[in-house]
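Student: Please help interpret what follows.
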Amino acid sequence: MQLYIGRNLVLYISYGAIFFLFVILLGVSWAENVQISKSRHTAVLSSVSRMVTDGPCLRMFITTTTMAVLVAAAVITMVDCTLSDNKLKDSQSIVNFSQLVISDTTSLFVSTTNITRCQESSSNNCYFSSYYAYCCLLALTACSVFLQVNFLLKIFISLVATILYIVIFNYLRPDIFTSPDSETEFPLTQPVKYTIYVTLLFLTLHVIDRKIEYTSRLDFLWKTKFSFEQEEVETMGSVNKILLENILPAHVASHFLSPNRRTDELYHQCHESASVLFASIPNFFKEFYYQTDITKDGLECLRVLNEIIYDFDKLLLKPKFCAVEKMKTIGSTYMAAAGLVPGQENKHQTPHHHLIVLLEFAFAIIAILNQFNKDSFNEFRLRMGLSHGEIIAGVVGAQKPQYDIWGNTVNLASRMDSTGVVGKIQVTESTARVLEAAGYDCVCRGPVHVKGRGMLTTYFVRAPGMRSPENSRDRSFTLDMKK
């Protein structure tokens, strides 16, 4: 503006005020992101910036004000644009010049004088009329760069600005845009030509803004849909993880949830030392379970068994039994194991610590069942078998995968249960030696025929509060670890 139009007071005041306003708006908008110092003034600017960020109405007001200032900046200097009488006389002199040249060649001095006056008048600040039109086009373009503003607001402000410019070109200040030379260069007058320019630019910017608005809305819808689907995927992943951890142990579930796992890989793991417990309630189906109308075809009996198993499962939530893993229930038999989680052993613990934990779990379910009998006036009794040794753990099945354990240790624990005595915990000789070394009292039962193993010497583990064996002869077979 200063290069083409004379430097005057209106130009300095208007553009200086606009520049100062833009600096303030820019500083308020970015004060929260740019922390120069921790002074009180910076804190005030940051709070104002947060108000602008959190207030949509305030942001809309600032945007509208900025666009209105841009529109007004293009035509504000027209207020000081005044045409002198010389320009009108010059136009008439140019016409007279042509007539004088044709009529009389002696009028050269007059024409030279008129040309000199025309050159003097070219220094008038309204001589570059096209510059005002181009500034109007730039103002319309600047209003369209606010991409985050709704296109309806932009089209309203652009429409008002277009109408304002057209009125200025044709009605308010047509004298500025009227040039005698333009009538011979272009079939249309300059006001009409600039009106066409502004109208075409307005329509073009409107099409571009509409396209941007459509793309932004489509992008927002896609992002919303993607975010919703991502939340659904995360929710389904969490549900699948919970379901899988209810079916499989946590360390096995993490293996199957690993993205690097091969789909055709068979999960298996060998454990050199693990413990297995079988705890059954023999008199449940023999004395309690009946399918009659009173028990609703056995439904009430199964409800009682579910309460018992539920109480057993709640023990696994205690930190002291974190190493115990429930394997399955077979009828009224509860199967559990310990020492199956790799890396859970502590260097300060004994090699057979898992056996001690599983034995304490057996004592705990005895106490749970005794309390249940007192509350429900029943006489359920447990018969348990315990063994330790080498086992193999793995997952079998494709549709309904099941985590299970196999080995001689599992078979021995099952035989200790099936050949045991109600109310006692029967163990093998090797297991009894380990328990005796840990301070537990084991009473020798004697040789017992075990299917597939022949005659084996077994022992009863005396639980706290458990009655001594009825046969006094069994007391003489107490294991002596010193021998």
